[in-house]
Amino acid sequence: MARSKAWVTPCLAFLGPRRSAGLCFFAEFAYSWPPCLPRRMKRYYCKRVFFIPVTFGLIMILPVLQYPDPRLAGTARPIAEITPEIRVLAQNMVETMYARDGVGLAAPQVGAALRLVVIDISGPEKREDLRVLVNPALVLSGEQIDSEEGCLSVEGYSASVTRREKVHVEAQDIDGNPVSFDADGRLAVCCQHEHDHLDGILFIDHISRLKRTMLDRKVQKRSR
Ligand SMILES: [Zn+2]
Fold first, then answer.
1. Does 20 score more than 60 pLDDT?
2. Spacing, Cα 11 to ligand 1 middle (Å)
């Protein structure tokens, strides 16, 4: 963790798992208000308001990009070296995931085109299964299974997606140590969902064309 943030963690630990909800609300508020401003302008000032303080360790919640932002469709690049900035990014991604009651978050969702994901399928009350995966690689196996999925980048929408039942994950942790584990069930689905983000694939790319068209119409209406 960066030195500038050393005082933040004990304070946040004291405040408990919902610690960041207030900041998250503030970020949401700033992004949606005033409604008369064009989105591009809001994006500009949100970057100034939120990303600069994050650099200094003063704030932990990052705005999550929303579909159809083109940055969600890009391929993320491998992380060659785990720098202090990457550690801060990972920490902020964890805070953002917890504050939004998510079970996983990939770096491209917060505008960083890097192969980094954070996953914690426990909770929502207690969070005790955190995995920070750098450059994850998956080997899929088992049957095809259907399960309901949602995504912090496609708010207010969920759909049944077919994925493989089991997965073997090879990655590095945030200290650069190799990690590997086998997963099935919900964790396997979550690993595949987050890994897809690194290749610019969203869960809605797996749904039927009809469902996708209906979603796209809804998104278009909302953005008008
Ligand atoms: Zn997602």
1. no
2. 29
